[in-house]
Design brief:
11-stranded antiparallel sheet; 18 strands; alpha+beta; elongated; 7-stranded antiparallel sheet; about 550 residues; about 50% helix
């Protein structure tokens, strides 16, 4: 019986897995994200992940056929009347089921994740097909924080020898670059452009170059015309560390044991560090103005700086220390004073584009400026907004080195300092800390949902094979396909319950998610026990 079971199981699995694998290739073929030459390789890779669905049902089909033939030929009756117990008769079925349980567990937790990752990598590496498909559909290619539009796109048959693997020629191009908050930062438009695809160990890098284009800076509201515009290069492909579906059992457990350092948690953690950095910078500037009466803000690069004198910091506004006085701002070039301005107050908001060192902008209210390089002190124009300044005496390097356990106490200290930190910084710190814990919980739940889904799916294989065998022995007068259909319905319901339970777990309802995930297996077990009981009575 065991040999017959394995033979039918092998044949059935081969047929089902090939059909399901071709089905998995339909979507990437339909949206042209998979090149025609890559179909065979993609299907070959998809066969391994599809085994997780093919094995349970092919095992149930094999058990149904083999046990039905044994029952129809009265071999089961002969074995029973000769004194063999049903547990002995069904021992080969149980043995194959247990072997499938171990095999499915190993397959789902170690082999299948790797092949999922290779399938995703293959789609990501076929970057040219993805780009051409998006252009042909009139859609934008969303890569990171850049959206690229084009009227037409063709492959250059004779690309330049610049190290690029492929070059695309575009017409009617627009590229929109956004910041981390999703706000538009700049926009480039051009009649013609080229896209070079570079492939390396880090993935596929796309470099866009526009000729005779125009650029618009949303922050400054300025438009410039340039002969050549090259937006920041972007990386295509997936991030393996962030894809739980492509992680093995041990990798998922490692993620759960080190949640603060997971890649998906890092943006939320950086937001907490940014709030602490801004609080440190604000305190430092306020302290310098209070103790020495001045503070120096330096532009990136260190060549030019701005010294603010005679002010005190309240929230984001530097006000004069004494009534009826003004604030003096001196502009220095390589430590040499070149211009000064006097104003009633200065606004010092934090730079929204800076996410690391706590840079600030400087906006003087109604400044009266004069040139210090001329003896006559002629009046001069003062910039409306000076961007990206850092406080010279303030160091925030230690904040970036804070351990995870130190973040919560440091955020709580923001409301208990001697210098009252602005409410905006306090609320930003509290909200970013809350979001950090939410992200960690989300990553943990996502990893747990995959572990639960794989365990439930592994157990379904021996339960389906037991159900098919018990129904075939009980309903020996029915057609084998009819019996398999009866066993097939609970099996499909089990797959649906496992998938539904995983979604419920991801929705942060772990208890009900686990119950739903395993209820399908409980249904299979209950049906098998009922069929075996009926068989024993008859």
């Amino acid at each position: 019986m065991t040999a017959e079971l394995l033979r039918v199981l092998l044949l059935t699995t081969t047929v089902i897995v090939v059909v399901i694998a071709f089905g998995a290739a339909i979507k990437p073929l339909a949206d042209s994200s998979l090149g025609s030459g890559s179909v065979v390789k993609y299907v070959a890779l998809a066969m391994v992940p599809m085994l997780q669905f093919a094995l349970p049902f092919s095992a149930g089909f094999a058990a149904t056929l083999v046990l039905h033939r044994f029952a129809a030929d009265n071999e089961l009756v002969a074995m029973s009347t000769s004194g063999m117990r049903y547990r002995t008769i069904f021992a080969p079925v149980v043995a194959v089921g247990l072997a499938l349980l171990v095999g499915m567990f190993i397959l789902l937790h170690t082999i299948v994740p790797r092949f999922w990752g290779r399938m995703q990598d293959m789609l990501a590496q076929d970057a040219t097909s993805i780009f051409l498909a998006a252009i042909s559909r009139g859609e934008a290619l969303e890569v990171g924080q850049i959206s690229i539009y084009a009227d037409t796109a063709t492959v250059d048959p004779n690309p330049l020898d610049n190290g690029a693997e492929q070059r695309l020629l575009l017409q009617g191009v627009a590229a929109i670059q956004k910041n981390s908050a999703g706000h538009q930062v700049s926009e480039f438009t051009s009649e013609f452009a080229t896209v070079d695809m570079h492939r390396g160990r880090e993935g596929v890098i796309m470099k866009l170059a526009m000729t005779n284009g125009s650029g618009f800076n949303a922050a400054e509201g300025t438009v410039v015309f340039v002969p050549t515009a090259q937006p920041q290069a972007v990386q295509l492909g997936r991030t393996l560390e962030a894809d739980a579906k492509s992680m093995t059992y041990f990798e998922l457990q490692a993620v759960r044991n080190d949640l603060p350092n997971h890649i998906e948690v890092q943006p939320a953690r950086q937001a907490v560090l940014l709030a602490l950095t801004r609080a440190e910078v604000w305190q430092c500037i306020a302290r310098e103005l209070e103790i020495s009466g001045k503070v120096e803000l330096v532009e990136e690069g260190g060549r030019r700086s701005y010294r603010i004198e005679g002010g005190t910091l309240e929230n984001e506004i530097i006000k004069p220390k004494a009534p009826s006085t003004t604030i003096r701002i001196v502009e220095l070039d390589r430590a040499k004073p070149i211009r000064e301005a006097r104003c009633s107050q200065a606004v010092m908001p934090f730079d929204d584009e800076d996410v690391s060192v706590g840079r600030v902008d400087l906006i003087a209210t109604a400044p009266r400026a004069k040139d210090l390089l001329r003896s006559s002190g002629m009046e001069s124009r003062w910039p409306v907004r000076i961007r990206g300044l850092s406080a010279a005496p303030c160091s925030t390097t230690k904040i970036a080195q804070l351990e995870f356990a130190e973040l919560t106490p440091r955020i709580n200290e923001l409301s208990n300092t001697t210098l009252p930190i602005p409410k905006s910084i306090q609320s930003a710190g509290a909200s970013s800390l809350l979001k950090l814990f939410q992200e960690m919980k989300s990553v943990d739940i996502d990893a747990f949902s995959h572990l639960c889904q794989r365990a439930a799916l592994a157990l379904s294989a021996p339960l389906i094979i037991l159900l098919g065998a018990s129904l075939a022995a009980w309903k020996r007068d029915s057609l084998p396909l009819t019996i398999y259909l009866i066993a097939f319905i609970p099996g499909i319901l089990n797959i649906v319950m496992i998938a539904g339970g995983q979604q419920v777990i991801r929705a942060d309802n772990v208890v009900w998610g686990v119950i739903i995930s395993w209820s399908g297996n409980a249904l299979l077990l209950g049906c098998s026990m009922y069929a075996l009981r009926k068989l024993a009575r008859n």
